[in-house]
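> forwarded from #structure-qc
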């Protein structure tokens, strides 16, 4: 049997022997040298557990050795922390001692070590971008990072509780799905179980206990299955290996939660894996299994003829044993080579390809090229991170082209997505689609096994803007937007300018008054635009909402035109604490203690907004946004300095948002549910229907904890296809 990922530091002699076995030659000498170098570099360092720090790089290298990956990668595993954590060791040092290849791998991992996925969304998105780019340059960089993360998760108990949960969420959201996509199942499963342990310890221990209570029973059942099947295989003179395995705890939890099943209803708690020499042997074993036991309908999957997108191949069938074994169990059948790929994914490639990512691997990593294709076109950070989670980490459907080629796509994909997956030219000239020989609407949701044919025409004028509502993949949406952006640039500029003029007029201002360079400079910077026409064009093709642009311009205008207020001074948190004592309602008032504080309903400030205070005799201080017209037009001598205080996690603030949406029967209910799913309470709602435009103007008062959360709500609402505009309301 194959050796699985170790939980212990592998002795150097064993590691070198494994390297020599899988990579004959003198490459083991590179690993030995890296071991000795790292041992010397980390000699005086200790981890939070109190153990010598050197245990960490040895553990990382041990995990990589178990993956049977090449010597330069294992060497980089030993050295991955030396540049960052050790004095007098630079990347030049690594390059001189170990060569360019190892130095590049160490440099890549060092940069990834600086990424933080637990902070605010924009920075999180940028971190993801950097990781994707690192993968494109050399996939081994991310394999080392996965090994590094696995050992850190194994020792997570030494971190503070709050940090444990943050790291566990990050691992479950980012690293475990990446391991799955790279096909490294052995790492993916352990990362999921370890994350589950810290995120929901009660559920983890409950399932672990139930699995443990049945351990003896399960082992006996597995023994009976193996014994009965072995007799049949021996009679057929098939060379095989067979073992039983427990299902990892997180997958049990996930099935129970998503499918509403009890622990006893999970069919594949008992599973037996059969490894054979050839594909023919796989199907022979399958036939023998179905003659021995009754197949449970709908529980057979052939991943050999139709492999998963991460290269996984196997036959899966769930059967029930009859009188002797009246319990359901899963049988997995695959060749030794398939099993190696199933456990080690892309890492297995280097056993035979010695550090080169050849064409075969490139074909199997199409999804990576797909991400690189559209990530550069996505300017908005939140959009990028949401799309990544959807396109990269979602479930797959496996489709066929008319020639029989397999195309893997995310669940929910439509013919439009399929067309753009084939080629942007096919998508741009698409006029219809056939699924299994029948013409279907372009919004049809494709299912695994569907044969899809895209009907094209040279006379096609290109995609429709409505396709953005039909397409489900970010790749297709990006290419549709790209078409409108490039092919119709002039038209988009005119259209966008017209849309902004109408929006500005609706707000009581003129567009020329808002389009000063100092006002739109921030928009240019955020979206990496070079000139004002780029903003017009983006609005024209639907890349940015006109309401958002005008709101930003108005905000900048108000800041520029607000007169200096000498009596309004910024009060730092430290100064406030020192001078004032306890805050009132989450706000410090300079020069006063215990003063009544209320928030202006005209602008509804929330933490993160710049604020000023208006002192009213007998009514305390009214807190406004610093750019609120009502405040700036007030008596200056009554203005006072205020600042936000730290608030606890339960403190919320009212904020008004204005939504203009296409009217339909369930609009309010859907919006309420949508916002509720973001854990944002709705305090009040008012709506007015525009019969002519068939739209509704909805004003909602919601409760948020910060400006950042409010911006996130606005960003999510903007992505809905039934919403025309959404912005923060000011009365």
């Amino acid at each position: 049997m194959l050796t699985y990922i170790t939980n212990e530091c592998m002795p150097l002699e064993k590691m070198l022997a494994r390297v020599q076995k899988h990579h004959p030659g003198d490459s083991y000498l590179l690993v030995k040298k890296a071991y000795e170098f790292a041992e010397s570099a980390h000699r005086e360092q200790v981890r939070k557990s109190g153990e010598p720090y050197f245990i960490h790089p040895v553990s990382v290298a041990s995990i990589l050795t178990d993956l049977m990956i090449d010597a330069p990668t294992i060497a980089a595993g030993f050295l991955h922390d030396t540049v960052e954590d050790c004095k007098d060791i630079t990347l030049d040092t690594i390059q001189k001692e170990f060569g360019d290849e190892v130095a590049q791998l160490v440099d890549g991992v060092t940069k990834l070590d600086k990424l933080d996925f637990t902070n605010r969304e924009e920075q999180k998105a940028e971190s993801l971008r950097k990781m994707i780019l690192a993968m494109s340059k050399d996939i081994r960089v991310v394999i080392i990072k996965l090994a590094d993360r696995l050992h850190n998760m194994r020792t997570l108990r030494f971190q503070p509780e709050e940090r444990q949960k943050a790291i566990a969420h990050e691992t479950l959201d980012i690293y475990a799905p990446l391991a799955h996509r790279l096909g490294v199942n052995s790492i993916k499963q352990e990362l999921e179980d370890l994350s589950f342990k810290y995120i929901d310890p009660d559920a983890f221990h409950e399932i672990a206990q139930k699995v443990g209570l049945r351990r003896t029973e399960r082992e006996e059942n597995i023994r009976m299955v193996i014994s009965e099947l072995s007799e049949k295989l021996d009679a057929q003179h098939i060379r095989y290996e067979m073992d039983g395995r427990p299902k990892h705890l997180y997958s049990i939890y996930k099935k129970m939660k998503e499918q509403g099943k009890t622990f006893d209803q999970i069919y594949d708690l008992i599973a037996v894996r059969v490894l054979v020499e050839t594909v023919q042997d796989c199907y022979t074993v399958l036939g023998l299994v179905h003659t021995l036991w009754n197949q449970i309908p709908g529980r057979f999957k052939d991943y050999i003829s139709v492999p998963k997108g991460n290269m996984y191949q196997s036959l899966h069938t769930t059967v029930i044993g009859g009188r002797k074994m009246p319990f359901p169990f899963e049988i997995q059948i695959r060749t030794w080579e398939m099993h190696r790929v199933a456990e080690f994914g892309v890492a297995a490639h280097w056993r035979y390809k010695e550090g080169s990512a050849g064409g075969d691997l490139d074909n199997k990593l199409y999804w990576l090229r797909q991400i690189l294709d559209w990530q550069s076109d996505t300017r908005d950070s939140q959009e990028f991170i949401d799309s990544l989670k959807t396109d990269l980490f979602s479930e797959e459907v496996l489709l066929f082209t008319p020639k029989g080629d397999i195309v893997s796509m995310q669940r929910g994909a439509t013919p439009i997505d399929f067309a753009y997956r084939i080629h942007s030219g096919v998508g741009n000239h698409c006029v219809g689609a056939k699924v299994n020989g029948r013409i279907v609407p372009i919004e049809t949701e494709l299912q695994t096994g569907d044969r899809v044919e895209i009907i094209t025409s040279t006379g096609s004028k290109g995609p429709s803007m409505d396709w953005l509502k039909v397409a489900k993949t970010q790749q297709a949406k990006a290419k549709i937007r790209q078409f409108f952006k490039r092919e119709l640039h002039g038209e988009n500029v005119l259209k966008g300018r017209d849309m902004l003029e109408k929006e500005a007029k609706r707000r009581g201002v003129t567009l020329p008054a808002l389009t000063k360079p100092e006002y739109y400079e921030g928009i240019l910077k955020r979206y990496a635009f070079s000139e004002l026409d780029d903003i017009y064009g983006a609005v024209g093709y639907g890349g940015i909402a006109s309401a958002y642009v005008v709101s930003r311009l108005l905000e900048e205008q108000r800041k520029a035109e607000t007169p200096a207020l000498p009596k309004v001074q910024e009060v730092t948190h430290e100064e406030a604490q020192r001078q004032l004592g306890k805050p009132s309602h989450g706000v410090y008032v300079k020069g006063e203690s215990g003063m009544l504080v209320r928030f202006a309903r005209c602008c509804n400030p929330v933490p993160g907004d710049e604020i000023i205070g208006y002192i009213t005799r007998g009514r305390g201080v009214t807190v406004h946004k610093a750019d609120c017209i009502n405040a700036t037009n007030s008596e200056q001598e009554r203005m006072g300095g205020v600042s936000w205080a730290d608030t606890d996690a339960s403190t919320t603030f009212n904020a008004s948002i204005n939504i203009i949406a296409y009217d339909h029967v369930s609009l309010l209910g859907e919006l309420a549910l949508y916002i509720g799913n973001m854990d944002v309470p709705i305090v009040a709602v008012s709506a007015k229907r525009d019969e002519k435009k068939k739209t509704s103007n909805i004003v909602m008062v919601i409760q948020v904890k910060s400006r950042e959360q409010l911006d996130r709500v606005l960003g999510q609402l903007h992505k809905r296809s039934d919403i025309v505009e959404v912005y923060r309301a000011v009365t």
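QC bot note: DSSP finds 33 helices and 21 strands in the chain. Confidence is low (pLDDT under 50) at residues 351-360, 564-584.
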